[in-house]
Amino acid sequence: MSTDMIPYGKQDINQDDIAAVLDVLNSDFLTQGPQVPLFEKTVADYCDAQFGVAVNSATSALHIACLALDLGEDDIIWTSPNTFVASANCGLYCGAKVDFVDIDPQTYNLCADKLEQKLIKAKSQNKLPKIVIPVHFAGQSCDMKRIHQLSQEYGFSIIEDASHAIGGKYLDKPIGDCQYSDITVFSFHPVKIITTAEGGLVTTNQPGLAEKMQLLRSHGVTRDPKLMTKESEGGWYYQQVDLGFNYRMTEMQAALGVSQMQRLDEFVAKRHQLQQRYDELLQDFPVITPYQSLDAYSALHLYPIQIELDKVNKSHKQIFKDLRQNGIGVNLHYIPVHTQPYYQNMGFKLGDFPNAENYYSRAISIPMFQGLTFDMQDQVVDTLKKVLA
Ligand SMILES: *Cc1c(COP(=O)(O)O)cnc(C)c1O
């Protein structure tokens, strides 16, 4: 990649962010200090959720969320094939089976109709999922009301993979309030809406789940007498009551997160400006721009377009290559998870989830991030015009 390539996503770090991290470096705690609880409270309050538990990645968050919901070897999780592999791998970490529900061709999110059809069939075969993980693709909420209704009817838990969606809303309520789910997971990787370098966080309104995830992120070890099986043996005493991990977030990361949260609404508002400009500028292009549902205020992590390949004289692959060669750092979200070799070895085949595969065959994510200037955006549009001509 050339250095003046416009990336598809990029973090936005200002002087306040840098000062916040430096303050921590000069303080007594680099880990397990006051910044992590402050970040947890900041995010939980923003989301109108009761509890926040910060960890070192969304991948870790998905893992402990599944464990907290007692996912084990005889269980099944379902998620969207149009996602990053982590949304599915968390099930495999727990020894469970993974299956997918195809996407809605308009929203690119897990399709609630397809979910219902699959549940009816699974019930008759006694193979119902224990957990369904809807992914708010590109920052736009799934049809959570419907998915929640189905969870009541068929008895599964819900983890929202909102890695793309902090700062977004569903039915005018913040994503992460867990009104229609048990747990919501966020990612703070630098390409996402706000960043802690690496990092993730779960929100929940269920005290038992919050407690369990707090244990699991730190070795299953507690210093809380209420959680111990017998009396403390002294001031040094701790107990391991579960098998946990070291999934802790550092104080530097949490301080960066607290600082980034101050600008979250501004970041998402800028993304909306960019989205509206793209929608207008691309009107006469042979592309399908991303549909915005009336139920959702998307966090707009991505701006994925579909190329109308019957209207252009180039292949998808060639268009992608030409854009990269002309300085536009496009990407593709996502290679359907079930087509990955690891999943093909488990028996999934090309053709299993045709909507996700069809979308993949035409999709390109063009640059979308808060630091994208209108001039840079015009350059993206001009280049796309040239490449598609
Ligand atoms: C980025 C992402 C993840 C993983 O996030 P990390 O913080 O990098 O572990 C999981 N799911 C989705 C949908 C993502 O986009």
Concise synopsis of the structure shown:
Belongs to the DegT/DnrJ/EryC1 family. By secondary structure, the chain is of the alpha/beta class.
**How do the strands line up in the largest sheet?**
2-10-9-6-5-3-4
The fourth-level CATH homologous superfamily of the largest domain is Type I PLP-dependent aspartate aminotransferase-like (Major domain)
How much of the polypeptide forms β-strand, as a percent range? 5-15%
Main sheet: strands, sense, barrel: 7 strands, mixed
At CATH level 3, the topology of the largest domain is Aspartate Aminotransferase, domain 2
By DSSP (H or I, 4+ residues per run), the number of helices equals 13
The distinct ligands, each listed once, are: pyridoxal-5'-phosphate
Following the backbone from N to C, one meets helices and strands in this order, namely EHHEHEHEHEHEEEEEHEEHHEEEHEHHEH
Work out the helicity level. Answer: 25-40%
- Extract low-pLDDT stretches: none
Provide the residue-averaged pLDDT: 97
Structural class of the secondary structure composition?
alpha/beta
Task: Say how many strands there are.
Answer: 17
How many distinct domains? 2
Task: Give the class-level CATH name of the largest domain.
Answer: Alpha Beta
CA gyration radius, whole angstroms: 22 Å
CATH architecture of the largest domain: 3-Layer(aba) Sandwich
Dominant shape: globular
Protein topology:
Blueprint: E1 6-7, H1 15-25, H2 35-47, E2 51-55, H3 58-68, E3 76-79, H4 86-93, E4 97-100, H5 112-124, E5 131-133, H6 144-154, E6 157-161, E7 169-170, E8 173-174, E9 183-187, E10 200-204, H7 207-216, E11 221-222, E12 239-240, H8 251-261, H9 264-281, E13 287-288, E14 296-297, E15 303-307, H10 316-325, E16 328-329, H11 341-344, H12 354-360, E17 363-366, H13 374-388
Parallel strand pairs: 1-16, 3-4, 3-5, 5-6, 6-9
Antiparallel strand pairs: 2-10, 7-8, 7-14, 9-10, 11-12, 13-15, 15-17
Helix pairs in contact: 1-8, 2-8, 3-4, 3-7, 5-6
The structure holds pyridoxal-5'-phosphate.
